[in-house]
Backbone:
């Protein structure tokens, strides 16, 4: 990549949220500027400090967080070359599909330039993933050009075996960098 690329890494409330720390590190080491946004539910699983340490950037978790502007989520959206939602819960996917904007992550997604690619890496219980509402929301987002990677199959944290596992970090990172090279 000839210039530094800006990635918005949106982390939602899944047990896989802790894996997003390694993802942020991997993307930062690849030379990307990574702005992390944590949903309130994500903060039940992970804290901002590891992300801030690995990216060198403040974590945004409230619409009232301020940088150099009172509309930080809009500024970050304007600078974004890619939005990566990892892990993405059924709730986050539904909010994106319906255009609900009630936290920094969903507001930033709506404020993106329409040409900015969005990559979604779901992680949830397999029943939630297979539910017709979730599949309808995924279909809506795919029709809008949003790219999905995963979910994977295997043992889930809830004790079930099946689809719903977070895709491996290396695969998500590689896909994000591949999308950025196309810009």
Residues:
């Amino acid at each position: 990549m000839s210039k530094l690329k800006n990635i918005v890494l949106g982390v939602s409330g899944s047990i896989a949220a802790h894996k997003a720390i390694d993802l942020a590190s991997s993307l930062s080491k690849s030379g990307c500027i990574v702005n992390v946004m944590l949903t309130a539910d994500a903060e039940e699983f992970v804290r901002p400090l590891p992300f801030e340490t690995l990216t060198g950037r403040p974590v945004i978790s409230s619409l009232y967080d301020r940088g150099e502007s009172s509309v930080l989520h809009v500024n970050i959206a304007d600078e974004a070359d890619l939005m990566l939602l990892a892990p993405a819960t059924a709730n986050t996917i539904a909010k994106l599909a319906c255009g609900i904007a009630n936290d920094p992550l969903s507001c930033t997604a709506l404020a993106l330039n329409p040409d900015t690619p969005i990559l979604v890496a779901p992680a949830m219980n397999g029943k939630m993933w297979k539910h017709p509402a979730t599949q309808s929301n995924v279909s809506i987002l795919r029709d809008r050009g949003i790219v999905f990677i995963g979910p994977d199959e295997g043992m889930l944290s809830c004790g079930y075996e099946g689809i719903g596992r977070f895709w491996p970090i290396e695969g998500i990172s590689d896909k994000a960098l591949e999308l950025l090279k196309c810009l």
